[in-house]
Amino acid sequence: MAAFEPPHYPFRPATDDGARHRVVVAGGGLVGLTAALDLARRGQPVVVLDDDDTVSTGSRAICFAKRTLEIYDRLGIGGAIRDKGTTWNTGRVYFGEREVYGFDLLPERGHRNPAFVNLQQYYVEHWLVEACLATGLVDLRWKHKVAGIVNGADGVRLAVETPAGNYSLTADWLLACDGARSLVRELLGLAFVGKVFRDRFLIADVVMHADFPAERRFWFEPPFHRGGSVLLHRQADDVWRIDFQLGWDADPEVEREPERVRARVRAMLGPAIPFELEWVSIYTFRCRRIEKFRHGRTIFLGDAAHQVSPFGARGGNGGVQDADNLGWKLDAVIRGEAPATLLDTYDIERIPATDENILNSTRSTDFITPKNEAARAYRDAVLELAARHDFARPLVNSGRLSRPAVLHNSPLSTPDEAPWADGAPLGAAAPDAPLDNGFLLDRTDPNGFTLLVFGEGAPGGVPGVKRVNVPVASVAAERYGAGTGNAVLLRPDQHVAARWRRCDPAAIGHARDRALGRVA
Amino acid sequence: MTALDTSPRLDDPDLAFESLVEAHRDLTPDQSRRLDARLVLLLANHIGSVTVLREAIAAAREAAWEAPEAGR
Ligand SMILES: Cc1cc2nc3c(=O)[nH]c(=O)nc-3n(C[C@H](O)[C@H](O)[C@H](O)COP(=O)(O)OP(=O)(O)OC[C@H]3O[C@@H](n4cnc5c(N)ncnc54)[C@H](O)[C@@H]3O)c2cc1C
After folding, report:
1. In-domain check, residue B4
2. CA distances (Å), A389 to each of A50, A383, A394, B13, in order?
3. Side-chain half-sphere exposure of A356, counting CA atoms within 13 A
4. Does B54 touch chain A (CB under 8 A)?
5. How far apart, in whole angstroms, are the C-alpha atoms of residue A413 and residue A372?
């Protein structure tokens, strides 16, 4: 099968030295491109500056979570990812010679998207680039490196370096999406604090024709890699990702040598399966974040704002949720439909979400890399027990896979007036469900608020809020805990903003205004 | 259960002690440690409350006669 050929996008010299732009995105990686596409699809022109001229190189994100796929459905590229990627819902955990247990992440049917699709990050970025260009509103500037910044109260001045010389720009809003080594973050002097895990991991992408099922496999101390863990994932084009835990004392230079890597892979696969190495890299993982993501007119998203170890696939998936959260808010502020203080709720909502990702990734990494002998004894005890007893399975932590953040206690949510015990809580990403031969999430307004109205004859909506009727005897009604006459208001990012057992248009309008930060 | 009960509760304390010690017979220190870990996990699950577990952890640490050496 033809492997992916990285595109090289054309460099064009700047012709607008000194110009002012509404939104500038620093960094055209996974998150910067997602943010640019989101804003462009809401009608905002966006300039993207990227210091490179291609998509993500090598092996990075592969697991795209259900919520990310839903966001990409809204942005029009979900189908391409599903078609090309490998869908998986199940996984298996091994300890030593034995299988400990298997799991199913999405036993519940009736969602358009599976729990995960595995696909190389470069494909997703490539389609994001194409989708950005298709809007006609995204000015993608390759080989334009942000080199200086003055984060002013009424605009952000940027110094940009290109092969054809330097120029400057002013942005009303700067989205800093320049990755884990963010220069914008460094130039603003923001501390990036957290922890480094004293361990090294070998990441190998291997091309092979193997008929292993498409599931996540995790081995603790397998016979073919004593003293470490191994993770196997299938990607597109017969590429498989294998992570080998090497320990802190491993020498990265030595471990990178192709012959040595091949020997490790051969020990794992056995002599009968031919394979080729496509990519090898060695990582030390970190979990950290900056204290605040919004700094006046500069707002940080993705790895520039936070970094996690990959167990749980929370890095890219978390960053895509940042873009999902910020896009509609910034659009509303630029249009004058919401006060600039709405942008503070990006911090209020995304910092707890980030901390949840950091906590989960840290705990997984601590399980995989025990800190001391006692930790190792408990880890191994959990695995031994899990092979025999159900109770121990939830204690096995080979990665708590990315789930959408519930925006608990968000000031944008309208507290329930009546008790509401069942279904998605306030602040949750709206659950998908079958609806009228399609899916509920596809019926939401991609650019605005949506009111789900349950049952016939329920009161109408308000202008500017799309109304979607949902039958009461349905999976959807169950997932929202809703009955006849109930209504649920979804924000433009599909999170639950308010819900009513009995509602009137005034209440809906008020809840919408509250979600836009216009009223408290 | 909402609080750690530290009143004497075992119906046969001598048998309880003997059983715990006996369980470790012929085990290497590593195997012993893992056995204890499995035992703690089984009992923790039986108790079914992280609050009680954390109270027990605190009580166990506080009951040590020697303060842990710095840096260990
Ligand atoms: C081994 C590994 C496995 C992973 N697996 C997963 C996974 O399965 N699922 C998942 O969700 N995440 C995963 N991640 C994390 C994921 O890759 C990152 O979280 C994601 O790439 C972050 O996207 P980003 O756009 O914030 O940053 P990046 O992808 O790093 O993009 C930053 C962009 O900014 C550009 N840039 C940098 N500096 C400048 C500058 N000064 N001026 C202009 N442009 C600049 C860069 O060229 C780049 O294009 C994994 C990471 C690793 C390392």
Report:
1. no
2. 51, 10, 10, 28
3. 16
4. no
5. 44
Tally of domains in chain B:
1
| Domain span including residue B60 | 30-72
Residue A235: phi and psi, rounded to 5, are -120, -170
Contact A132, A35 (CB under 8 A): no
Query: Which residues of B are less than 8 Å from A385 in CB distance?
Result: 38, 41-42
Closest atom, ligand 1, to C-alpha of A180: 30
pTM here?
0.95
B40 to chain A: which residues are within 8 Å by CB? 378, 381
Q: What is the per-residue pLDDT across A256-305, written as a single tens digit (0 to 9) for each?
A: 999 999 999 999 999 999 999 999 999 999 999 999 999 999 999 999 99
pLDDT at residue A23 in the model: 98
Residue ranges and CATH numbers for the domains of chain A are: 19-85+118-191+287-342 (3.50.50.60), 194-286 (3.30.9.10), 434-515 (3.40.30)
For an interface test with B, the pick among A371, A384, A388, A397 (most B C-beta atoms closer than 10 Å) comes out as A384
Tokens of A368: 């995989």
Q: A320 CB less than 6 Å from ligand 1?
A: no
Q: Is residue B49 a part of any domain in this protein?
A: yes
Examine the pLDDT at B69 and tell me if it is beyond 70. Answer: no
Q: Which residues of A touch B30 (CB under 8 A)?
A: 377
Whether residue B34 and residue A391 make contact (CB cut-off 8 A), yes or no, is: no
ipTM over 0.85: yes
In a domain, B56, yes or no: yes
